[in-house]
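Exam revision sheet. Question 4 asks you to relate a sequence to its structure. Input first:
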Amino acid sequence: MSDQLKKNSAQEYFISFIKKKSKLLIGIISIALLVFSISIFFNNKEKNKNILVSEQFNQAKILIQNNKNNEAKIILEKIVAEKNKFYSPLSLYLLIDKEIETNNKKIIVLFDKILLIKKIDEEDINLIKIKKALFLSDSENEQLLLDTLNPIINSDSIWNKKAAKYLSDYFFQKGEKSKSNEYRKIFKGMSKK
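Answer key, structure tokens:
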């Protein structure tokens, strides 16, 4: 009988607690549902945006196949401006590879836009910097090349050896043996680790 009384008193206490705190519980549940609904909304919005950018990218590729490079260029530059972590870099590479954009200054600006995308992880950013450096080596802008690669060399990036080796080879090809040896020493020091 005492167990039954304890059970009844626990139930009564629980019901009383819920009645007293009903506004608080309703508020907490409402906030939780609101947060959940907002997160679903933004996830769907982001997913739809990615689908749209994907379709635009494919449309640009079709335009390139049909030799409509000016139309493709407009779409690809728009995709770069969208700051999509996947399609923005691909759009830039397509502009370069298919020689749709030939203005080196504009390409550097597009690279810089890509490098500002916060959704791209650090190692992918470093890879994009190396690709920018490969592009810069043709433009003879040595200081910009150094400004692009030295931060990678001085970091713990998986690309630091590649960047040091690239600069060593770059200066060797230019006939600047002292600079080439400087970066070769850095590269060899990294290789021993």
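Marking note for examiners. Residues 1-119 form one domain.
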